[in-house]
Protein: Subtilisin-like protease
Amino acid sequence: MALTGKNFPVFLLVLLLLLLASCHEKQVYIVYLGEHSGEKTYNEIEENHHSYLFSVKETVEDAKSSLIYSYKSSINGFAALLTPDEASKLSEIEEVLSVLRSHSTKYFLQTTRSWEFSGLQQGSKGFQLKEDLLLKSRYGQNVIVGMLDNGVWPESKSFSDEGMGPYPPSWKGICQSGDAFSSSNCNKKIIGARYYIKGYEAHYGPINGTLDYRSPRDKDGHGTHTASTVGGRSVQNVSALGGFACGTASGGAPLVRLAIYKVCWAIPGQGKEEGNTCFMEDMLAAMDDAIADGVHVLSISIGTKDPVSFNEDGIAIGALHAIKKNIVVACSAGNSGPAPATLSNMAPWIITVGASSIDRKFLAPIVLGNGRKIEGQTVTPYMLEKKMYQLVYAAQIVNADVPKNISGQCLPGSLSPKATKGKIVLCLRGNGTRVGKGWEVKRAGGIGFILGNGRANGAELAVDTHILPATGVNYENALEILNYIHSTKTPMAYIAPATTKLDSKPAPFMASFTSRGPSTVSPNILKPDITAPGLNILAAWSEASSPTKLDQDHRIVKYNILSGTSMSCPHIGAASALLKAIHPSWSSSAIRSALITSAELINNVGKPITDASGKLADPFQFGSGHFRPSKAADPGLVYDASYTDYLLFLCSIEVKNLDSSFKCPIKPPSPADLNYPSLAIPKLNGTSTVERRVTNVGSSNSVYFIKVIPPPGFSVKVSPSILFFTHVGQRKTFTITVKANSVSKGMEKDKYAFGWYTWFDGIHNVRSPIAVSVA
Structure:
């Protein structure tokens, strides 16, 4: 409608009403006050939080009813329903450090053989152990790992407490009852369980019981999978549906105690296979409780779609409070690869974990009508009758209204049943979920389907328990199949039954989905830190969820295969728990340093780690390399950092509102001088010198020599080049000077070169990656 003189005033009135409505629309905001000062009871803290609300609300009742969470343990702050105007007024109060608006789509989950391959299980073929780490750590006994996820299926055999001793005396948590969950569901393995839903329900309204349990119980599968990866007991004769990956399933630290904090929930109107949501105010409440409960490690397989600054990132804020209590925090790097600068969880006090493969495949080859046999992978339990079937490309059999640019992707409702019936369908990745494409082929009457990777997915194959005969192929093979379809009038194919193949080579390789550096929030910190198994990982599953999570899938499984940095993160959580058991006095930064400097760069054919397509990977994919827990137990030297060091780092990047009790110096140190076990120098102009400090945790009398592999185009000098130690705990400081040479002058701006510096004493190799770009 065109605006005329008559209707223009009406338009202005409508616009004004909309603006007024938005000013009065209530949303959840987190009011962050930093640290608690002085000794106060929980009631006194809550009354103090109420007082802030009284200052902006019209009535006492309104102020009290608007409070969603009062953070009372380590974190000082509260979450409340506020109008934008009320939030703005609170932000102007001197004691208020920040006011953060909650967003429903900001955080989400980042969706056995992996431990044998990493050198932890007996009979490891991947690496030879010089000492049995599991025995030395007593399998992580009495270390408490907190899991922030979407709950747990406590009946799984992976969570049996048979033979476990009494609760650790330091434990102060609870077992919270709720839907289909009572205190009897906790035991000596799952020693605590809580759920946090107030933020979710403030946004979506009361949870739909058909979507999720209003309790710590897992109705999705993800939380059970990650918890059992960290601390699942050893369970024999376990496999995925169809008998794949058959063997003994075990978590990395089988005797750790697990504390479950359910913070992620199903999204109304959206299939579970498409993911779920985790609200910042719920996560902060969980982390505040976890710190008070007495956890030693936090494993958080949650991330963001877009980079978030540290003072607006609930995970970073909560983790900083955890670090002050010496709690190790491991988080997923994210699943937004292979594009660069896509990382989540970039704070230097967090261990940021990428995802790589293990040495196992699930081979299900395709035989084409021209006789060509093409490798594919799947874990679907369904098999075709051994004969040739007509093969079609999805774009050839779509309904008339499907846009051409997505016609080959088998999106819901896109395929014509008449044209699909009885055929094997080639579907390409892109939009939609992998399992959803399989369901669409089945819905339309297809007999089987081939899932073809797109260019971005390359050669990586994440397998799924599809609901019909199926297999997945890499990008090059997808193109070959497509060319074959177009080259003949009656293309034919057969999908062979899948088999499990161990000791596949090369392994590990980097998953294409793993998010990449550089860090956009703090480019002076090299992230991710490390990589661990995250591709096709078998672990326990919720029996209230199907293996595909599709609504149409009614199968029930006890164990399932899943991929993502969600799966790699708990590997590092478990390794951190083992190190905590062996070295209880080590700081969280010392444990991170030990893992980083002992990581492996070579695959199982003796060559540098690559991506799935065989191209050399770099530290923006794997950090320092593939984790090696057995080596991390005896790293020789560690790069330690204190809570104060992190606050000084924050001062150096102009973040001054995370701890009100700390005053930044007039001239803070350079962000590059944070004592980190890696080195990143963005936009180098000429020469840069940074300082590092190592602590001897090896032999009392030891001498370390430096070895440098400089990034191409740069020179690197370490001074002094020899470090002499006379006792354990002794610290030594050294400088690293990086200089651009004539070759680097022709480098593309923002393009990084990579190198390494290593301290070695004949026993230990304390290796750190270097990343440098030119201005």
Observations:
- Confidence is low (pLDDT under 50) at residues 14-23, 122-131.
- The chain has 18 helices and 37 strands.
- The radius of gyration is 27 Å.
